[in-house]
What does this fold into?
Amino acid sequence: MNLYEAHNLSRRYDQSGHPVPALRGLSLYISQGEFVAIAGPSGSGKTTFLNLLGLLDFPDEGSLRFEDQDTAGLNEHQRTWIRRKRIGFIFQSLNLIPVLTSYENIEYFLLKRKVQRNEIRKRVTEALASVGLADKAGQRANTLSGGERQRVAIARTLVRSVDVVLADEPTASLDQATAHAIVDLMKRLNRERGIAFIFSTHDPGILAAAERVIRLADGRLV
Amino acid sequence: MIKRLFLLIHLSCRNVSRNRYRSIYALATIATGALGLFIFMGFNRGLMNQYRANAIRARWANGQLCTLGYRSATWERPWEKWIQSPEATMLEVRRLPGVRDVFPRITVNAMLVSHGTTLAGQGDAINGVAEARFFTQLNYVSGGDFQDASGSVVLGQGLAHGLGVRVGDKLELLTRDVNGVMQKANVTVSGIFHTGSQEFDSRSFRMPLKLAQKLLGTERVETISVALSDVDAWPAFAEAARQLPQFEAASFDELDEVYYRHAVDWLDAQFGFIRSVILLVVFLAIFNVVSMTVMERTQEIATLRANGESRLEIAAGHILEAAVLGLVGGFFGVVAGWALTVGPLAKGIAMPPAPGITRSFRILIELASRDAVQVLALCSVIAIAGCLLPVWRAIRIPIAAALHHA
It folds into this structure.
């Protein structure tokens, strides 16, 4: 089963009363457990496409299916539920609640689930260890470096056992070495846990790590 | 669920400390409002209690007993409806719960004549010795109680001024007895008083009960005033007084509806308005601070929503945060209010004479724990109300747009 099926997906934004197309008739498939990069210059529609995949936005035309389910028919509650249970997000910045510690940032999203306290502790500790931040558990998010914050965001997706992680330029604000470490981590988790990763980037070095590259220009596949 | 609630409270407290200067500003605004409100409530209570003490201790006692139906009608021969056996009735009333003392009284309408001036007055014929023990707020400008002197009277300041008499002067007191025959007594002014009520002081006098009974030609008394050991004991007393079916009891605020009750209602309405203004100012300040805070955190809200937090959950977090701000700010305000009251304002606030009152007075600020609770609750409610609109706006922004909110 495909994870995503997009058919003729279009999205326009209103800019001073004029419609500006961000995506123009995009059609593609993304499978379960894929490690996909979305490449393209600024304004090519990468973020718009990720927003649609993440059910954060609505297409103006076309359809998007998530595991055979047409997302157009989902109400707000159902979209929230899918985001909570199935999709993880890593943004370029502002991934975390700055006043909580690394541990609490991860724990926060588990507390509403019916998970035992001991189990929460175990899963959060394991997730932090798997991203190499076991020693930063008690540190507040606003005191972590950019790379550490991205790793906490990745750890957060791990404890939630999501099926897909959408990452919008996750390495854009990081130095080269940290960026590669983050992509290596994503790659490892994809391999070991079967989580699909769909991430956008400008960086050719990062693109090389992807199994498949979706290239966009002016909102179209190229 | 409880763990998550704790984390939300924990997160709210952390968020309050996130932008220290803004939080201090918000807390100071709420604390100032809470302080104003708390002191104001204490002032209000002090003023009301002073009014009440004045009404009870200067004139009415806690209430009165009269024969059933006497107060509700006008009688051609009222003395026929007066209490027949005052001593026996007083003995029964003394046995009722909370009763500290009882005072038999008759209202006497009389003409007072002195130096060719005749003025109409309304007097209370009383037991001077007994009443002197309780009516401590009848302030004497000169002289004092007539105690057991049978031929003495005390006059209200305005009445004495109108008659041109001083303490020690003699005057004639003319009234009709139960048969309609004019009776006269020569009395000496033993004291001149003021209660603070101009209207009351310009027509009132007090005379010995025995003298009044002699002039009127009756052994009966019109009412029995009741002094209670506790001002809040009236309802229990009134309930117990039903054991005496031939009598009815009325509290001082029923008896003094025009002056006391209306003054209290008028002040309550005025204070309610001022309280609303204070709350509005606090609300606007909170609204301003929370609007800025929420706007700054639009991206963070979007990140939370992207990760599966519902709008309701995010709103709940912000509401909790506002409640924490309200509670903490309110707490500081209450503590500051208490400190002011035991410190610089311990002796109360000097007030000019109120409408209809002839003397200035000091109002003690009387704080109550229930006021503190009310202030804390109000601060939280106001803070929550102030955050609702900004939060509602923030969670309505589409996630994709909010993620790129500058």
